[in-house]
Structure formats: C-alpha cells, structure tokens
Design goal:
- This protein is an alpha/beta fold.
- The chain has 2 domains: 290 residues, no CATH class; 63 residues, 3-methyladenine DNA Glycosylase II, Chain A, domain 3, CATH 1.10.15.40.
- It contains 15 helices and 13 strands.
- The strands form 5 sheets. It has a 4-stranded parallel β-sheet, with helices on both faces. A 3-stranded parallel β-sheet has the order 8-12-11, with helices on one face.
- Helix 7 links the parallel strand 9 and strand 10.
Length: 434
C-alpha cells in the first residue's frame, strides 16, 4: 500500500462573520498556533489553523463559527455508508439505546450503517498489541500518544514536531471504517468501492478538514463529515419511529466502544500504564512534559482537546456532563469488556491489517521559505525589533504578542506604526522632555 503524507489542510472549518466581529482580539489571544490577526477592526485567519475552535469558545458575539456542510446538502442513497461517532449515543437521553439510534439512521435511507464503537473495540486491542511490541524494544518511544484526536495530531505537527514519532502509527477507527465498510458494502451490493461514499457523523469540525486533506490525495474520495447538531433532530424523529423494531441488531460493541466518547474511554480497557488528559491547555501542558522527557514511565497518553473528551465537542447537543453520566450508565449496561474475537484480531494485526497509510510530517508555518543565511538575517531583524517593542503583549497592534508582531513587521504584513503602545510611550517621553 502506498504511503501518503499528512500535510497542512488547505481549508479550515472555522469561519468568521464580519458583520458580527468587532475586533475585540479575544479569539486572537486564545489561538494556540497564533493563526489569527485583527486587521482593520476585523479578525482574520492568516496562519496555521488546527481546528481546535478555541476561538469559537471565547468569542462573545458569536462571530467565529465552526462549520460542516448542512444536512440538506447531503444526498441519501443506497451507496451511502454512514458511520456515527460513539458520542452520538450520549446525545438523546436515557430513552434511546445505541441500537435505536442506529436503526433511526438506517430508516433515513442510508444503504449501510456501521457501528463505529465496535471498530473502536477492535482498535483498542490492536493498540494493546502494539504497546506490547514497543515494550520489547531497547528504546521504546514511551509515552505513545493517541492518534484519535485530529487536533492533537495537528498541534504536535506544528508546535511539537519532535513528538510525531510518539503518535501511534496504527490506522484509527475512522480510517478502518472508511476502508472496510466500503469494501464490504461494495462486495455485498456488486458495486465499485470508489462509488461508495462514507458519511461520518462527528462532534468535531476537525474531521471535515481531515477529510478535505485526504481528498487532495484522492480525487475519487467523496467522503464527508457532518456535525451531530446538524442531523440530531432528524435522527431523533426516525429513532422514535423505529422504537418498536426490536428484532434487528445494528449495535455490536460492549461498553468499551460506547465509552470512547468521554475522556478516559480509550484507555478504559487498555492493559498499559496510561493516562487520559482533556482540554486544550491541559493537552498542551502535557505535550510540553513529554517533550522535556518527564513522562517516560508512562506507556500511553490519551489526549483530547475538548473538555471531558469528545462529548465536549463543538458539534454536540447534550450538556457534556449529562452526556458523561449517560455514557457511564451505558458502559455499565453493556459491560466493561471488549466484545471482540481476540484470536481473529491478533491474526489481522500480524497480517498488517491495522497499518495506517498516512505518514505524519511537520506542519509548515506561514513564514516565507528562506535559505539558511536568509533565515538567520530574518531572525536577527526580529530580535532587534523585539528590543524596541514595549513587551506588554496587549494585542492592540492586531498580532497576538510582541514577538509575533515583530515577525509580521519583518515579513511585511504589519507596520511598526501599528504598535499603539510604542507610539504612546514615545509621546510620553517627548512630553517629559518638554
């Protein structure tokens, strides 16, 4: 299988409504990759956006939004495979079981509904096998870092590229579903796999960007993602209509797969020294610890940028704490063990079935490509300019901090006169001299 490369997505799931933006700089200050600038009183994305949507969370005016295609843009049909995130099971209250929700999706006209939570259980055991292999190496890459959250992956690729080799190199449940559901559906229905489209129902806008990135490498890729909030009410209606159809089973996972939606769900059944961390700033803090070599006694680190895990995603509907309570109830109901055939999964693992086709590489910044000598000259100019700035990190210039402002000036996308505090200081010094 050819190996493909993860590169910077050419699109972003973040949109800024200029009619609502008042240039308050809160989104700019919150961005972990310093991708936002405020120019002419309006916020704009100018750098590397990792789709964490921290800007959406802090915007007081609702001017910054995370978007996926609306449901009306999607075509139902017999060649559509739908794969919902396990988070979906926590979004309808205690009156709906996972099978009810999957039956509701089936009633919406999709040709095949795949229970992604079952694939998550299979992956969970494959992850355990990989950790066992890593233990035998003279210098294991511990702690291994979860590959499940696409935002964490992009943060690492941009801010912590030395940690890319710590990301688990297995195909994620999403990748496995995309590959296997299409193959099985096409075999059963006598059609070509490239004619089958897969719809991911997700709590996370980063999924849309990731699919867009993959489609750049494969023009035949018609897969799409839609937010839970965009399709939630229609699923509810169809699930209620299907409430009496109890003889058809579409949900196969145990509590392990169902529990993946909350923080700690990935490591719940993992026989390894592991830790789960959620929240953007906490995730960054722990990545710094890994980079400094402070967590080498840990074998696996589950990171999610959304608070409480994927149930706190921007496209969820239910309150995250109510959703967490419901997931914990479902885990007890379906059991705390995986419902997988271990020997069968071991066979697949030994055959390389879980190998990912994606090779992860660092994300490039928006800075111009320069030779070594040109880059040294650029850095010297930046350092010289920083010494002339007030260093109060106010953001009034339209850049998130003084260093970034200096970079913007050197790169020609900002003017030194934009530093309001420097001008004020100059005026105060002139006034004192007078």
């Amino acid at each position: 299988m050819a190996e493909l490369t993860h590169t910077l997505s050419r699109g972003s799931s973040v949109q800024i409504d200029e009619t609502l933006c008042n240039g308050c700089v809160l989104c700019m200050k919150a961005c972990p990759t310093k991708a936002i600038r405020v120019r002419d009183g309006l916020a704009r994305i100018q750098g590397v956006c990792v789709d964490c949507l921290e800007c959406v969370r802090v915007c007081p005016r609702g001017a910054v939004k995370g978007v996926t295609p609306p449901y009306s843009d999607l075509k139902n049909g017999e060649h559509y495979v739908v794969s919902p995130s396990s988070v979906l099971y926590s979004q309808f209250g205690a009156g709906f079981l996972p099978n009810d929700i999957l039956l509701g999706l089936r009633a919406m006209g999709y040709g095949y509904v795949h229970d992604q939570s079952y694939t998550s259980e299979i992956y969970n055991f494959a992850l355990e096998l990989y950790i066992r292999e890593e233990r035998k190496k003279p210098e294991p890459k511990f702690p291994l870092i979860s590959a499940i959250c696409p935002v964490v992956e992009r943060l690492i690729a941009y801010r912590f590229p030395s940690l890319l080799e710590h990301i688990v190199p297995l195909a994620t449940p999403r990748e496995i579903v995309t590959r296997e559901a299409k193959r099985r559906f096409s075999d059963k229905n006598k059609c070509r796999p490239e004619d089958v489209s897969l719809l991911h129902i997700t709590p996370c806008p980063a999924m849309s960007s990731q699919l867009m990135e993959h489609s750049l490498h494969d023009a035949s890729n018609k897969d799409r993602a839609i937010g839970i909030s965009a399709i939630h009410e229609r699923i509810r209606q169809k699930a209620q209509e299907q409430a009496m159809e109890q003889d058809r089973v579409l949900h196969y996972s145990g509590g392990v797969g169902v529990g993946w939606g909350k923080s700690g769900g990935e490591i719940a059944a993992l026989n390894a020294q592991s830790l789960a961390v959620s929240g953007l700033h906490e995730s960054i803090r722990y990545l710094k610890k890994v980079e400094m070599g402070l967590l080498e006694d840990l074998e696996f680190l589950e990171l999610r940028v959304c608070t409480e895990g994927c149930i706190g995603g921007p496209f969820t509907v239910a309150d995250r704490y109510q959703a967490k309570h419901l997931i914990e109830r479902l885990v007890r109901m379906f059991g705390e063990e995986r419902r997988v055939k271990y020997n069968y999964v071991l066979k697949l693992y030994n055959e390389g079935w879980f190998r990912s086709q994606w090779k992860r590489v660092p994300l490039e910044s928006g800075s111009p490509r320069l030779s070594i000598s040109e880059n040294i000259e650029r850095q010297n100019k930046i350092e010289d300019l920083i010494r002339k700035l007030p260093g109060i990190e106010c953001g009034a210039c339209g850049s998130p901090d003084c260093r970034t402002f200096a970079e913007d000036v050197v790169d020609g996308i900002a003017r030194l006169e934009d530093c309001v505090c420097r001008q004020d200081r100059g005026r105060r010094e002139v006034a004192r001299e007078c």
